[in-house]
Amino acid sequence: MKYVDEYRDAARVAELAGQIASRVTRPWTLMEVCGGQTHSILRFGLDQLLPTGVELSHGPGCPVCVTSTEAIDRAIALAGLPEVVLCTYADMLRVPGSRTDLYAARADGADVRAIYSPLEAVQIATRSPGREVVLFAVGFETTAPAHALAVLQARAARLPNFSLLASHVLVPPAIEALVSASDNRVQGFLAAGHVCAVMGTEAYEPLCRKYHVPVVVTGFEPVDILQGILQLVTQLEEGRAVVENAYARVVRAEGNPVAVQQVAEVFEVVERHWRGLGPIAESGLGLRPEFARFDAQRRFGCGSAPMREGPGQDARCIAGDVLRGVKRPPSCAAFGSACTPLSPLGAPMVSSEGACAAYFRYRRRAAPESSSGAP
């Protein structure tokens, strides 16, 4: 990532901020969906460069944060089986379930291994024929192709001891859930460039038409984000609502055809329960019936009795409101005191892309915000 204090970027940032201010004639509320963009906004103070009335609301753009308590509880239950090796990403270890987390399960003796690539899980299964290797597969459209490739490689190798606990989520249905909610205040969305680099931009077009809400695809550097905001504000001021690509150096309208084909071969669209948003129709990916033998829920019988969000979660945690963009982390009474990255009460404080973690890192010394409910 380039830094704002580089002369060229600093000049362009100032220019874009000025252009945004010159276009704005009324208040607008915009949402960046990606947690990586949230961290860039807070790190570089981009929200503080915007004119009065242009407000950025942080969305559910962190796959670790939106993975449901139900999914975490399933993963913990599987990890507790003596024959199972559970593989997952390191960020998932501290995400709270209804009673505990995978980090505590590992401390209690479960074989939970942090991996960097889904293909590592395939390699572990190859080297450990006497163990059942379960890959806890979380993520947005960005990670789905690699998980699909892991399943295809396991099938090609005829691995009998590899399975997937699929917990993928899809971005466009989540945006629709947000924009159609009764308390929605967001009038335009910044879409994540890495998601669109994989799956393309076509899925956002029905949203723009149905809800008359503009979507601009952008990247993660300060100049990228401000360019996306400028294009959103321009559309809103002109009364337009279309998909625009402000990240053309990376994103094509059709996405990555090979990745799209692999995901379609292995997965089908299913309902998914999102932390903070609840169940959203057609918002997740599950294994197709022809890959049922790689489905951990079917293999181990952990899918017939779904678990609920439990009372073990701390009542002070407002993670659901943070993920919906209704409140900001500093308005939580536990922020920075009872809830820190070392002792998190909610998922947004755990993940490296979580909004609470971003505020803790970059805005911890700022004056506390009101807990009245306003963002």
Account of the 3D structure:
The chain has helices at residues 7-23, 35-44, 63-66, 69-79, 102-107, 118-127, 144-156, 171-179, 193-199, 205-211, 222-238, 257-266, 296-300, 319-323, 347-350, 355-362, and strands at residues 28-32, 54-58, 84-88, 111-114, 132-139, 162-169, 188-192, 215-218, 243-245, 267-274, 278-287. It folds into two domains: 1-315, 3-Layer(aba) Sandwich (Rossmann fold), CATH 3.40.50.11740; 319-362, no CATH class. The chain is built from 16 helices and eleven strands. The strands form two sheets. A six-stranded mixed beta sheet has the order 4-3-5-6-11-10, with helices on both faces. It has a five-stranded parallel beta sheet with strand order 2-1-7-8-9. The two termini are 28 Å apart. Helices cover 38% and strands 17% of the residues. With 375 residues, the protein is an alpha/beta fold. α1 (7-23) packs parallel to α11 and α7 (144-156) crosses α12.
Question: How is the secondary structure organized here?
Answer:
Layout: H1 7-23, E1 28-32, H2 35-44, E2 54-58, H3 63-66, H4 69-79, E3 84-88, H5 102-107, E4 111-114, H6 118-127, E5 132-139, H7 144-156, E6 162-169, H8 171-179, E7 188-192, H9 193-199, H10 205-211, E8 215-218, H11 222-238, E9 243-245, H12 257-266, E10 267-274, E11 278-287, H13 296-300, H14 319-323, H15 347-350, H16 355-362
Parallel strand pairs: 1-2, 1-7, 3-4, 3-5, 5-6, 7-8, 8-9
Antiparallel strand pairs: 6-11, 10-11
Helix pairs in contact: 1-11, 2-16, 6-7, 7-12
Question: Which features would summarize this protein structure in a list?
Answer:
375 residues, alpha/beta, Rossmann fold, 2 domains, 6-stranded mixed beta sheet, 16 helices, globular, disordered N terminus
